[in-house]
Design brief:
heterotrimer; A alpha+beta (401); B alpha/beta (147); C mainly alpha (347); A: 401 residues; alpha+beta; Alpha-Beta Plaits; 4 domains; three-stranded antiparallel beta sheet; two-stranded antiparallel sheet; 20 strands; elongated; C: 347 residues; mainly alpha; globular
Chain lengths: 401, 147, 347
């Protein structure tokens, strides 16, 4: 037996103890310690980025409409915080600060709440009037190069932009105004927080953020109806009115991808026999087959513009959802772009939804009712269990959960 | 006078019992470090006891998983009065990053009255000592209210 | 029937039981020793440690706590066991002479090493009874471990006591002397036993027995709070637990004072001689001598606690039960045997 601590124990009796004597002698946290959160509402622009990145759901807000905007009360619940500081990192305006104060002891839950009130003025009205198409104005000459900006704000590439307005809908700060008819893309410099959401949302990669490759401008590419010039004659197939797919036998190589991806299992493709069969009863007309087909050999729905019937390569997938869009948008025009709900129940994005009914079919609780003809999507709040199955099966990511 | 003596003694001799209700071990390590030479909570009379029957203060760490919930409640019931329940870290207060998970039954305050919350993920040992000091005050109040 | 003399004697013995070497003395000095032990361990670990009065706080706090009796427990045994253990310890304290002071000075054959040996078992047995009555499985494990600990410690203890008895007996020419008064008288006349070479191994063995008998670190496998939830005490709460904690503290006093009585008994006569040398006589002298002797006794107990309990606690980690058993039956028994053999052959 040996006792390695004999000497240590004996000598320690006569030494000073190594105790910090904490409650008697106050002690300070190390530099960069992440303790109690301090929220500066004056700097907050209410982009909600902090809420989105928070892993512990510690950040919430309540907004009340006021005369000229919104009154938003943002709450940080320290009892749910991981103190990871991701919210601080993501906050472009330094509205969130982590202090070195670690004395977070509470007997009531309210003691652990950090709140702040943000007054947000509605930006939409003044934006188009104040700055008429600022970035769009210097129409770039052929051969010019569009570079990302240094200040972290987005830049539009007019040659790629189809003015789909998606970026404007997604912008958390409401800094973008896009007019589909007038083909303008306006950025409100004051409102923009440089979050990059618009670039991520853009289906055409027409928005450049810092770090993106500069894009050379092709002179003739600017006008949108370019695809209309595509050979119309080649597409021998006409889409069906009910939105179900039609095969173009000339293009089809019977690769079976469409059958594999069909969420309803309505397609049967035999590579050897070169057959392509659609089960009309199963088909939900979601358009997945059309979008996955590598040869663009499937057409879903009737194209609304006969002038450009079934445009060939590129626009085909983009056209389909667009075709549905004008009608879809009508019922929900007054509403703002949908946000996921707090109670874990799904929300439909009418801009994306093709009313394929697959969500209703897969819902384990039978809480959804979708009518393809009437283009309605109804959620029975009482039946919904918030499982998220609908969002998972939606082929168009049109359900926010 | 004897009552006063017991009340003072209660405030000077808080024995801890630690329940891990599915914690990631971060808070557990910080709690044990409270007893190390540097923080030495034994100055306050704190002793880590091995059974809930001896305890005055119950420290709960972890988000209270479905599996641990009945055990946690049974353990807390076994602590004799006056007792004080302290939640340590964000997990037992809200579920923290595990909030909403199918396996989480928490927060603890849904099931028992929680006396002191020590926030942090994990809290600094100093914060834990703060929490214990608070818990001791509550213990003293509870003892005073007992007779 | 109730003569004045009888009343006086009764009062005197009541005083013995309740105040001086009895309950109050045990209570105060025992808890004080426990507090000093905790403080010393803390200092050896470079901590500040609890206040010296901490065990008093613990005890009074436990008195004010709710007492829970488990549904599976046998109530009477569960509640009575702590009292049994404590009273046994108080009785032992009456039997252990404080140098020249003895409770039973008129009945030398009452205070006997063999009786002390048996009484020392009672606290251990009472803890076992209480634990078994609580019906907890942890107490069950603790019970078996406590029993092994008692077995392990008892053998060397018996050998130590035997060798002491034999040494004194040899010197007195009466074979074996088991009477505590006899041992104390011999030491008062001929100096402490520890000064004899043959007794040094026995004294060492006794030092090693003290932490084992009190169930202190590293021999606390029976009450391992981290692995078997305090073992036998797992179900105890409130005042009964406080009494168990008190008995544990008193046991520290009992064993250290037993060591002093067995091996350091000669110091007391030095005090008497010193007072005689100053020239004090009469009642005052004997009172001062008694006070001094008690003081020296307590000081020696504190020193012994520091050496055998605190220091050993600070430098070791808990032994497994089989390691504990092996250790006591080899090393400690070996030491005691050496002494016994030396004493037997009259060295």
């Amino acid at each position: 037996m040996d006792f390695p601590f004999v000497k240590e124990a004996l000598s320690s009796i006569f030494k000073k103890s190594s105790c910090d004597m904490y409650p008697v002698r106050p002690s300070e946290a190390a530099p960069n310690y992440r303790g109690r959160i301090v929220f500066h509402p004056d700097k907050c622009i209410n982009c909600n980025m902090c809420e989105r990145v928070c892993s512990g759901n510690a950040i919430t807000h309540v907004s009340e409409p006021t005369e000229d905007g919104e009154r938003i009360t943002r709450t940080f619940y320290l009892g749910s915080c991981t103190f990871c500081a991701t919210c601080m990192d993501f906050c472009g305006h330094g509205a969130i600060e982590f202090t070195r104060d670690y004395h977070m002891v509470a007997t009531k839950e309210e003691d652990l709440m950090v709140t702040g009130v943000v007054i947000k003025k509605t930006p939409v009205k003044k934006a188009p009037a104040a700055k008429p198409a600022a970035p769009a104005a210097p129409a770039p000459a052929a051969g010019a190069v569009i570079k990302p900006r240094d200040d972290g704000k987005p830049v539009q590439v007019p040659s790629k932009c189809v003015y789909c307005t998606l970026c404007a809908k997604k912008c958390p700060a409401g800094a973008l105004t896009v007019d589909r008819a007038a083909k303008t893309w306006t950025l409100n410099e004051d409102e923009c927080v440089g979050c990059g959401t618009c670039a991520d949302a853009c289906p055409k990669k027409a928005i450049l953020m810092p770090g993106d490759e500069p894009v050379a401008v092709e002179a003739p590419a600017a006008p949108a109806p370019a695809p209309a010039a595509a050979p119309a004659a080649k597409s021998a197939v006409v889409g069906r009115e009910d939105g179900k797919p039609v095969q173009d036998p000339d293009k089809c190589v019977y690769c079976t991808i469409c059958a594999k991806k069909c969420p309803a299992g309505a397609l049967e493709v035999d590579r050897a026999a070169k057959t392509w069969k659609l089960d009309e009863d199963s088909c939900v007309a979601c358009g997945t087959c059309e979008s996955v087909c590598p040869k663009k050999a499937i057409v879903c729905g009737v194209q609304d513009a006969p002038a450009a019937p079934a445009p060939a390569p590129a626009p085909a997938p983009a056209e389909a959802p667009k075709a549905a869009e004008p009608e879809v948008i009508e019922p929900c025009k007054p509403a703002e772009p949908p946000k996921p709900r707090d109670d874990g129940r799904p929300v439909q994005d009418p801009a994306k939804c093709v009313y394929c009914t697959i969500c209703a079919k897969k819902c384990p609780a039978g809480a959804l009712e979708v009518d393809r003809a009437a283009k309605t999507w109804k959620l029975d709040e009482d039946l919904c269990i918030g499982c998220g199955t609908c969002a998972g099966v939606c082929p168009k990511q049109a359900i926010l959960y | 006078m004897f009552k006063k003596l017991i009340e003072e003694s209660t405030a000077k001799s808080p024995w801890l019992f630690h329940i891990n209700a599915g914690s990631c071990n971060g808070c557990d390590i910080e709690l044990v470090s409270v007893l190390t030479p540097r923080y030495d909570a034994e100055r306050l009379g704190v002793k880590l006891s091995g059974t809930p029957r001896h305890a005055d203060i119950v420290v709960v760490t972890g988000p209270v998983t479905v599996q641990s919930l009945p055990r946690v409640l049974r353990t807390i019931e076994q602590v004799p009065e006056p007792r004080c329940i302290v939640t340590m870290g964000s997990c037992p207060q809200s579920g923290n990053v595990f909030r909403g998970s199918y396996s989480i039954a928490g927060p603890l305050s849904k099931y028992v009255h929680v006396d002191v919350d020590v926030a942090g993920c994990a809290p600094k040992p100093e914060a834990v000592i703060d929490g214990l000091v608070k818990a001791i005050e509550i213990l003293r109040e509870k003892r005073r209210a007992m007779n | 029937m109730f003569s004045l003399e009888f009343l006086q004697t009764a009062l005197l013995y009541l005083g013995y039981i309740l105040i001086f070497p009895g309950f109050l003395f045990c209570f105060v000095i025992g808890l004080l020793l426990c507090g000093i032990d905790r403080k010393a361990v803390a200092r050896m670990q470079k901590r500040v440690g609890p206040p010296i009065l901490q065990p008093f706080y613990d005890f009074f706090k436990l008195c004010g706590k709710e007492t829970i009796v488990p549904a599976a427990a046998s109530r009477t045994t569960f509640m009575m066991a702590p009292l049994l253990g404590l009273s046994a310890l108080v009785v032992i304290q009456l039997f252990i002479p404080v140098f020249n002071f003895r409770v039973f000075r008129n009945l030398p054959e009452v205070a006997d090493i063999i009786v002390i040996l048996y009484l020392l078992l009672i606290p251990a047995v009472s803890v076992m009874m209480g634990g078994a009555a609580s019906g907890s499985p942890y107490a069950g494990i603790g019970l078996s471990r406590e029993m092994v600990t008692v077995l392990a410690v008892e053998l060397p203890l018996v050998l130590v006591l035997l060798s002491v008895a034999k040494t004194v007996g040899n010197a007195m020419g009466t074979g074996l002397v088991f009477s505590m008064s006899g041992i104390a008288d011999y030491q008062a006349a001929h100096g402490s036993l520890i000064c004899r070479a043959s007794m040094i191994p026995a004294a060492l063995a006794m030092l090693l027995i003290i932490p084992g008998e009190t169930g202190n670190h590293p021999f606390d496998a029976a009450e391992a709070e981290t692995e078997i939830c305090e073992g036998l005490l797992a179900e105890y709460s409130g005042a009964p637990l406080g009494i168990f904690k008190l008995s544990h503290a008193v046991k520290m006093l009992t064993l250290t004072s037993l060591f002093v009585a067995l091996f350091l008994g000669g110091i007391g006569s030095g005090v008497v001689r010193l007072i005689a040398a100053i020239g004090l006589t009469g009642g005052l002298a004997s009172a001062i001598a008694l006070l001094l002797q008690v003081l020296i006794m307590v000081l020696l107990c504190i020193v012994l606690t520091l050496v055998t309990i605190s220091f050993v606690h600070a430098v070791t980690a808990r032994l497994k039960i089989e390691q504990l058993f092996k250790y006591y039956w080899t090393v400690v028994t070996g030491l005691a045997l050496i002494s016994l053999v030396l004493a037997w052959f009259g060295k």
